[in-house]
Amino acid sequence: MISYLQIENLSKRFGEQLLFEKISFGIGKQQKVALIAKNGTGKSTLLQIIAGKTTPDSGSVIFRNGVTVGYLEQDPRLNDDNTVFDEVFDSENPVLALLKRYEQAVAQNDLPLLEELISQMDARQAWDYENTVKQILSELKVDRYDQKIASLSGGQKKRVGLAKVLITNPEFLILDEPTNHLDIEMTEWLESYLEKSGCTLLMVTHDRYFLDRICSHIIEIDDFGVYTYDGNYSYYIEKREERLASRNAGIEKARNLLRTEQEWMRRMPQARSHKAKYRIDNYYKLKEEASRRTDQANMELDIRGKRLGKKILELDGISKSYGDLCLLHDFSYRFDRGDKIGIVGKNGVGKSTFLDIITQHITPDRGSIEIGETVVYGYYRQAGITFGVNDRVIDVVKEIAEQVDLGNGKILSVSQFLEYFLFTDKQQYSLIGKLSGGERRRLYLLTVLMQNPNFLILDEPTNDLDIATLQVLEEYLRGFRGCLLIVSHDRFFMDKVAEHIFAFEGDGQIKDFPGNYTLYKNRREEEAEVRKKEEKKKNAPAGGTQTPPLREVPASIRKRKVSFKEQQELARLEEELEALNREKAEIENLLSSGTLPPEELLRRSERMGVLLEEIDAKEMRWLELSDTGE
């Protein structure tokens, strides 16, 4: 396999904290690799080093000569003064630069320049590239080209950054949490795009379905070193458990040997031979090995929420609109104790607005909300909260409470509670500014749960949390005795936690579906398939509409010289249309004969529907090419 990237003896510290030390690994052409590690162990830093955005303390990063690299940061650095169009097309890629000039000429109706650029587009076969660009921008909902980057939200900037790196079509793609701020449909599209792509991929993500379906290799940073696994995420989980079991067995063996060596050290005479010194050196190595922890730090959440009364939350006829945009229309629901509801839907359809209405941060246009007297909300917001970077971790928590009542007769000090959440003694007294993004998210989650809520509302809690924390959070939420409302684009997380779904389908419509996300998705696909078959039975072509260009080409420019490739396509279309029309005539004769059995009649009718669609699409393309001037 051709090597695209080689990492040799890479080390990095962040202040006094060691992130990784003398790690080495390689990535070959077209491999799709995921990087997995706990928060705060240097995943993003490692990607920045590989992308050349920061430098290591020691070691080397070597790419194969000529390999093009694209890098998506966790928080993309975009030029606030640019429009979306200028930012997306800001690239050294010559075809992309040509496409940018072409789009600008169309917008300005510059006819002489368009004549020149169209021939260049033909020569570089840039029309296919234009279709790919349109698809990427459309799927990621990057459609307001005239907006300034400065006016975009964090999620919109992430999608613009992702679109920008994908349309450059690099040979080596580095993605840091690419699914953050993508809705489920966008995530599934990106999953399909990367699966089919021939690029080499190095990625950090917490989306386990994404990992399982895309990545063929896993690299794990643990204990400041690196471990590689030649398989997907499921394979990694299995082999990691085997590695930890083997390591723990080795540590236990070292501890048994240490007891013997400690006895020898106590009885050893003062006159030390060379052999005795060798044994002493081995004793200290053995002591270091035996002192390693055999267990992985686990965050076992067992916080009991306050008691919920019989009346919890009742929504009656809730509606909310902003101008012509209807987010909620006449929605009613009565919450029962133990409800675990997942909320799904595209970005911008009102999911966060719904949560703000429930918590009375926003007033609905119509309808009523009744909240039970015993309800205590715990609201984890997508935007998080702003910590002072110069505040210490323990002081932030003490501002909320000096101790935490778990509700089962057990009371923890703030320091003990922080340990519960995997914050070491050293981290507790360190500054917030030294925490990673995921560690800050974990601290925010801690501040929500320590108030003992009995109605948890979590808006995108999975963003920036490592997989180990997510697994523990999932187990806690599954055992949570109060009510749970959760918005998440993490399909694996939703399947583990949610027992039924509120699906925001647009235009204010919310569908209440009993079951987890995968069941909802399967039902939706089945319904779409049924609708498709019903349309075919009517012999009415579905009518595949052509995707318009980014900007419509002026009519005066549409007539141009047919390229050699298009001449071949025109000849091929004429042959295909002749064959399709012959088949159509044969089927029409059979259908009108009255001799076909019912099964054959149905099969021929379905084929006729498909034929009409194909003929319609090919005739439209034939007309486009025929209408082009000589």
State the gist of this model.
It is built from 21 helices and 20 strands. The chain is α/β, with parallel strands linked by helices and 630 residues long.
Describe the structure.
This protein is of the alpha/beta class and 630 residues long. The protein folds into four domains: 3-68 and 170-231, 3-Layer(aba) Sandwich (Rossmann fold), CATH 3.40.50; 237-290; 313-515, P-loop containing nucleotide triphosphate hydrolases (Rossmann fold), CATH 3.40.50.300; 520-630, no CATH class. Helix content is 45%, strand content 20%. The protein has a six-stranded mixed beta sheet with strand order 5-6-7-3-8-9, with helices on both faces. Strands 14-17-18-12-19-20 form a six-stranded mixed beta sheet, sandwiched between helices. A three-stranded antiparallel beta sheet has the order 2-1-4, with helices on one face. Helix 3 (94-108) packs antiparallel against helix 4 and helix 9 crosses helix 10 (274-290). The longest helix is centred in the middle third of the chain and has 35 residues, at 233-267. The radius of gyration is 30 Å and the shape is globular. Residues 544-548 and 556-560 have low confidence and may be disordered.
